[in-house]
Specification:
The structure is a homodimer. The first copy, chain A, is built from 12 helices and 15 strands. Chain A is globular. In chain A, a hairpin with a 7-residue loop joins β14 and β15. By secondary structure, chain A is of the alpha/beta class. In chain A, the strands form 3 sheets. In chain A, strands 1-7-6-5-4-2-3 form a 7-stranded mixed sheet, with helices on both faces. At the A-B interface, α1, α2, α3, α4 and α7 of A face α1, α2, α3, α4 and α7 of B.
């Protein structure tokens, strides 16, 4: 049963399992104690710290273990901001950071700080020069991911780090998605990562804080991990995390080449096999194992369920698959379609046959979902009048001269508003306008994206929930 | 090799190991995902929550997993304080709480809150009526441990909880030391505990927040654990924690009886076997497996090392064994001797022969440490003139009429100041005074404690670091 959601979490690497089991017997005691069990635990902890630091590319005394990548980000960001509070209260982040970073930014803003977000291009890539332009005299910290977790695009961390050094601003790199593949390049100041992303156990994050970076830990004092991370040390897990990081790094070059080819196959063939699909993310500067695409006229949750029934585990940034019913902020920042979104992230060891099976199953699954939703038939034809189902199926009104044709999709979740739009676009003359009324948050992203994919003109949102589309073709 | 430091951490319980290994294969995925691996992880997490909630005595939706007991305390205290900020900013705690609680209190005070501490008696017990007297109209939260981690004394949590209900103040119980033995009695509002204390793995704390308790999680938003605990769920560890809690509870009654008898043996025999020892903590209302005693004229760190060489792992609240060189705040609050302090906490399964071996080894070890320190010979004789080594060994001055005899122990660590005091007390007449100059923090505790043990009068500290002792016998 192929599991294609490696970017969420991967099964324990065999080396992690072995190290975990071995250190359960040796690493359970309190490493602060003077007795032999404590000293043994301390030795394991020190050795794990050295191994992890080497893989990160920092000194062991710059590397701290936290209970998760989220904790590493929370502690790293709050500690760096507090350490530089005399400099100022400005934080800059990219718009496509992980929600853990963006939630820190929200919390910082709520506490009276200032936050600016560097935007991204349609591939989800930050522009290093634009990122640098966000650095100000009062900037306490800048945050940039090494690679995007939803679309796989690599970010220009080395260039951003150089610009930050130049400006005297520390750069925190969220390396959660890339650390298993390679060390983060460049002269960064802080780094955060998460072991379960590379095959280590849950319960371990890494926080690196370079010597010389001003850092003031927040929250109640705790002497563990040099005051950077409170709570009893989870030594067996930390040992397993460090051992597996070394192990996956040893396999990284070969797996990178293998998975990169499989992802290229998916990137090339999905648009051939499935009509009305947008493959997103940078095709070249990307993580080796991750590809994301969105399917017009498809409900992401149903798509995930159908793929799951076929044995494929994938993830989605569609709004209907999130508890908040909002589409992924990454897709939003990129300005790409969010409906029918599928993220395929291949774990190490994925076989070509599994990918082929996926490619074999996907077209039928998408077609089935579309059929049940009453979606327009296929690409190219959606723009031609009369082809896309009868207008009677939509709540269409005022198609006459003078007032624009209106599609009322209030209360309907995506992809319904876009489907209804596609059904009626042929009913207005070229140059004519369709008004779509929709209160699903995703419409704001998907209606413009549909226009871009279909060559129609998105004419704006004159009032919230009212979208204007002008027929061009 | 007997390990007698169960109150710090215990080896993994066989049931925990079994559950951990089994769930490594099933519990590595993100339980928020819709695919089968995610659903499987979610099932394990839900089952663990139910099992843990049952053992805690709360509803599953009142129970949250955190990365450690420290995190449970930090989140529980900060969340409860924030949830009741309109009521007021007063926090009350006992003086003998775990440092994780006291550090929260310090941090709260630094943020502008008010903190009061309920004192304890010489056994380390909080008086429920005194605790209740700390509850005020502006009290946002009260914290009380179920049992003390250093001396084993049980606290009156049920009575304190009743008083808190009466006053409309939530009570948070730190149940770290007792939860493996029994559910916390009474109508508490919040509870925190730590799995590695009962034989669960590191990396798991429990936070219970009863429905109806106002709670506002602090820090950046995170949807995991109902917003109570950020970070990727550590499901294998959580499963192991819950399973082992049930397992140790099933064995608790029998182990309680067995270990209680062994501790009674230590409590009775140590004072018979070793001169000048004070056994501290409540002899009856106590944890079954824990006993603490302090040895006059002994340096705690050396004692620990010597016991370690003999194969016994224990812990100590003496100042010389802490990184801050301050004696345990628990011993200080109790007003008992801190020098030569030993905490013996027996893990489940400890055999009577191991305790007997310990009792066989201890007298020689203590005598050896005392001999090397040049300590006075033995109990009873220390007060009689001329018996306790020659005054020439101490830095003694002004023994004549008029000005009091002075012992200059500045720059010397405990137990040296007390040893020097004991050596010269016989040189002053009954009714005469010795002045001890000492800058070791522990002297403030140990000189009065020595006086109480020796029947001499402690006449105060007229200026910092100057202690007056009047000879009575």
């Amino acid at each position: 049963m192929p599991y294609f959601d490696a970017a969420s979490s991967v099964p324990l690497h065999p080396v992690a399992r072995q190290a975990l089991q071995a250190s359960l017997d040796e690493g359970w005691a309190d490493p602060a104690r003077l007795h032999r069990e404590g000293r043994r635990a301390r030795l394991l902890l020190d050795a794990a710290r050295e191994a992890a630091a080497e893989a990160v590319g920092c000194r062991p005394d710059e590397l701290f273990f936290t209970p998760s990548g989220t904790h590493a980000l929370h502690s790293g960001i709050s500690g760096a901001l507090a350490g530089r509070r005399r400099v100022g209260r400005h934080l800059t982040v990219s718009a496509v950071e992980h929600s853990a970073v963006l939630h820190c930014a929200e919390s910082w803003r709520a506490d009276g700080g200032t936050v600016t977000e560097a935007g991204v291009d349609r591939h989800g890539a930050v522009d290093a020069a634009e990122f640098a332009a966000h650095l100000r005299a009062d900037t306490a910290l800048a945050c940039l991911q090494s690679a995007n977790h939803e679309v796989g695009t690599l970010q220009p961390v080395a260039e951003a780090a150089a610009a930050c050094r130049e400006a005297g601003v520390p750069l925190l790199v969220d390396a959660a998605q890339s650390l298993g593949w390679e060390a983060v390049p460049g002269d960064w100041s802080l780094l955060a990562a998460s072991a379960h992303k590379w095959g280590g156990p849950a319960g371990v994050g890494l926080l690196a804080v370079r010597k010389g970076v001003r850092f003031a830990p927040r929250g109640p004092a705790d002497e563990r991990e040099s005051g950077r991370s409170p709570g009893f040390e989870n030594i067996p897990a930390v040992v397993a995390a460090a051992a597996s990081l070394r192990a996956v790094r040893a396999e990284a070059a070969a797996e990178d080449a293998r998975l990169r080819e499989l992802v290229d196959r998916i990137r090339a063939r999905v648009p051939q096999l499935v009509p009305d699909v947008e493959v997103v993310g940078d095709p070249v500067r990307r993580l080796p194992h991750l590809v994301t695409f969105s399917c017009l006229y498809v409900d992401g949750e149903t798509l995930l369920h159908e793929l799951d029934r076929e044995g494929f585990s994938v993830s989605s940034g569609s709004s209907c698959t999130s508890s908040t019913l909002t589409p992924s902020h990454v897709l939003r920042a990129m300005g790409v379609l969010s409906e029918g979104n599928v993220r395929v992230s291949l774990p190490a060891g994925t076989r070509a046959e599994e990918v082929e099976r996926f490619l074999g199953v996907l077209p039928g699954v998408v077609a089935g979902v579309r059929e049940r939703l009453g979606a327009p038939a296929s690409a190219g034809s959606a723009g031609s009048a009369g082809s896309a189902g009868s207008a009677a199926e939509g709540d269409v009104a005022g198609a006459g001269q003078g007032s624009p044709l209106t599609v009322d999709a209030v209360g309907r979740l995506c992809p319904v508003p876009v489907i209804e739009l596609a059904k009626v676009i042929g009913d207005v003359p070229v140059g004519g306008t369709v008004r779509v009324l929709a209160d699903d948050e995703a419409a704001r992203l998907d209606i413009p994206a549909w226009c871009a994919m279909r060559g129609q003109e998105y004419a704006g949102e004159p009032e919230p929930g009212v979208y204007l589309v002008r027929r061009k073709v």
